[in-house]
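Fill in residues.
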């Protein structure tokens, strides 16, 4: 049960951080030369899952490090070398918000189940 709660919490953390990055992109939409940023989660998670700790210098796949990193996107869009597409960023913001809320609801359900187990009902 705790594995599911941990997974939901990590994914919710990702969407919260992603929302902050997207808000920064939107705030800099009029900044000349600004390149939007994005958080990668799935690719980093896959890399960490494929790792085998055969050497002490290897990254431990069981570590509690967050499975996402921030990258700068490089597609040129604007006349002033600003690469922010407001419509795309707003769509990403809506997706992140919906996913964060859905994960929060799932966490509430998991904790309700745990409360039932503890109370013995």
């Amino acid at each position: 049960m705790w594995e599911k709660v941990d997974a939901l919490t990590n994914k919710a953390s990702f969407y919260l951080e992603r929302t902050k990055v997207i808000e920064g992109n939107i705030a800099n939409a009029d900044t000349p030369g600004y390149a939007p940023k994005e958080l990668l989660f799935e690719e980093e998670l896959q890399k960490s899952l494929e790792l085998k700790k055969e050497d002490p210098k290897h990254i431990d796949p069981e570590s509690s490090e967050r499975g996402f990193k921030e990258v700068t996107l490089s597609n040129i869009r604007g006349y002033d070398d600003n690469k922010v597409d407001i419509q795309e960023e707003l769509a990403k913001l809506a997706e992140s918000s919906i996913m964060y809320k859905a994960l929060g609801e799932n966490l509430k359900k998991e904790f309700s189940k745990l409360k039932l187990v503890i109370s013995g009902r």
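The chain has one domain: 2-119.
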